[in-house]
Amino acid sequence: MRILYIGAGFVGACSAAVAADSGHRVLVYDIDENKIKMLSSGDRDTIEQCLFEKGLGDMIVRNKENITFTGDYEKVIKYLDEVEAIFMCLPTPEKKDSEGESDLSYYYAAAEKLALDLVKRKNNSQENYLVIVNKSTVPINMVDETQKIMDKYGVKNYGVVSNPEFLVEGKAIDGSLKPDRIVIGAWNQQDFEIMRRIYQRFYNSPTVKYIEVNPKEAAAGKLLANFLLFTRLVSVYDVVGRVAESFGDIHFENLRQILTTDERIGKWGFYDSLYAGGSCLIKDAKSLKKQLSETGANTEQVQRVLSGNAFQRDNFFARAQKEAKFDWQNKKIAILGLAFKRDTNDIRNSAAIDAVEFLLDKGVEEIRVYDPAAMDIFQKNFDPNKEKRFAKIKYFDNEKSVLENSQACLILTDWAKFRSLGEIIKNVCPTPYLIMDGRRMLTDQFEELNNLGYDVIAVGSPTKKSSQSS
Ligand SMILES: NC(=O)c1ccc[n+]([C@@H]2O[C@H](COP(=O)([O-])OP(=O)(O)OC[C@H]3O[C@@H](n4cnc5c(N)ncnc54)[C@H](O)[C@@H]3O)[C@@H](O)[C@H]2O)c1
């Protein structure tokens, strides 16, 4: 089939790559010229430097006959004569200074531009039927809005489908090849039929649930799935973790064993962390709250989950002063991990962003940072040319050098290699020294490090203060 993707971000690039791998002919358009250049490079490493997703580079290179990335809209216009499906993979962040309203400006800009040329396809005859597929996470009623835009410009012979994306960053390619479910929301059989052909490799598969519903149910399902996942994380961080922190002689890992062996509770999300970040959970919960409140429904529970998540982060940072009497002023602090989680270079809503703001506010002398994948993006975000105070941030290319000369470290991302940080800390960080483990990466060494004179604050454990620092 001929498919057009608009937006070559995590969702657009990954799902286009999988479509190409499924044998479809795919054109991917993005306004970011640099991204297009890197994704078109034909070089695995360059592709993954742009979007750090395991397997994405290989898949694009392997299917290069089937996939083209372009920033040239003329190519898009030509393609409209033969295209059967257009996937909208645009950002839908929270609108600035709003309480959860989705910023649909990227979507509208792309959709209106598209509509202008859709009416001219096939010499103005518009005789080829196509579906416009909302893959972005959009408000529940978005299907009506998409239709309004198309109708306003006189687009004919089309359907609007909702096909929410459930990918997990860091496992997007693996997950897209072995999804739990494919959800298609459409109003009629013709549209379902087109989508079945696109997802032929999963339709009737014994291992994948192929779910056909209407477009509003599909869009609501996505928002609710994210909300339930978010609720689980926040309950574990802010309730289970708090119990493990607040009573003596309780290990988080032992509580986990007791709780997760109950099948009704399940295993997912049972780790402790300082924050549920990333581009989706927070903004989707806020959007759900906003949409619900517009119907007049009660939104207290959604707000509680959002507040619990923010509390967990603020509480973690505050423990240094409150529980270890650590004074941040004029100290050199190391941050290990800038990405919002391991195996990605995505820093949207990462704990490191808030940590930097917190530390600058506290008057530290220097913030030393290291991440295996997200340094370039972080550096662009905290450009000292934009704000002079960002000059306090120094970038290092390994764990040892970032820790040297620091008086405290914050472990903020769960990169697997950070599990061996304890040994490096012992070698390069003389005591007194504060270790703040926001991911329980050093669980097995808390006792030993504390006995060696380190103060240790970890999510899900009571603070271990060394006699040296008191
Ligand atoms: N990242 C995830 O894990 C994930 C998972 C599920 C759903 N989603 C949803 O999918 C959507 C996209 O997310 P993402 O993470 O891929 O975002 P992203 O920011 O990584 O990518 C979006 C891309 O769209 C491009 N773009 C913006 N305006 C454009 C225009 N007018 N024409 C063409 N391209 C344009 C941007 O340059 C960017 O490359 C969002 O609604 C998000 O909520 C994301």
Low-confidence stretches: none
Strand order of the largest sheet: 3-2-1-4-5-6
Report, as a whole number of angstroms, the end-to-end distance.
69 Å
* CATH homologous superfamily title of the largest domain: NAD(P)-binding Rossmann-like Domain
Report the biggest beta sheet as strand number plus sense, adding barrel if it closes: 6 strands, parallel
User: What characteristic shape results from the CA principal axes?
Assistant: elongated
Mean pLDDT: 96
Number of helices: 18
CATH topology call of the largest domain: Rossmann fold
Oligomeric description of these chains: single chain
Could you tell me the radius of gyration in angstroms?
A: 24 Å
Percent of residues in helices: 40-55%
CATH class of the largest domain: Alpha Beta
CATH architecture of the largest domain: 3-Layer(aba) Sandwich
